[in-house]
Amino acid sequence: MTATTPRVRYDCSRCPGYCCSYPRIEVKAADVKRLAKHFDLTVEQAERRFTRLYKAEGGAERILRHQKDEIYGTVCRFFDTEERRCTIYTARPAVCRQYPNGSRCGYYEFIQFERKHQDDPDFIPSA
């Protein structure tokens, strides 16, 4: 008997980028290194330009910087707010690569439900 990969039940291209609006998008050293290579920068330059330290109770964590967004207030600095897409998809951090950690995305299911029941294929819930 062979293991099968569960079928993905969401389509990121039909979402306005909810996960990109999380206030803390953590980046590890390998993520900063990948960004540096992608932009032909030193690791130190990439770290200064694209990230900041967030001081949490358990210590500090490095997170991606944000930019203003008309839908969510702020989103990841690498998110194209017009096209609603990631501009660094091939260099995105590990946490973004792993999201939503399964074959289903709760936000995608919610937005599909709302679009169907409001008879509006482009509906985006407001904050």
Description of the molecule:
By secondary structure, the chain is an alpha+beta fold. It has a two-stranded antiparallel ribbon with strand order 1-2. The protein has a two-stranded antiparallel sheet with strand order 3-4.
Described by the principal axes of the CA atoms, the overall outline is globular
Mean pLDDT: 92
Distance between the termini: 47 Å
Q: Mind telling me the C-alpha Rg?
A: 16 Å
Secondary structure topology:
Blueprint: H1 29-39, H2 43-50, E1 51-56, E2 59-64, E3 66-69, E4 73-76, E5 79-80, E6 85-86, H3 94-98, H4 106-117
Antiparallel strand pairs: 1-2, 3-4, 5-6
Helix pairs in contact: 1-2
Short description:
The chain is α+β, with helices and mostly antiparallel strands. The protein has 4 helices and 6 strands, in the order ααββββββαα. The chain has a domain at 22-100.
List key phrases describing it.
two-stranded antiparallel ribbon; 4 helices; two-stranded antiparallel sheet; alpha+beta; 28% helix; 127 residues
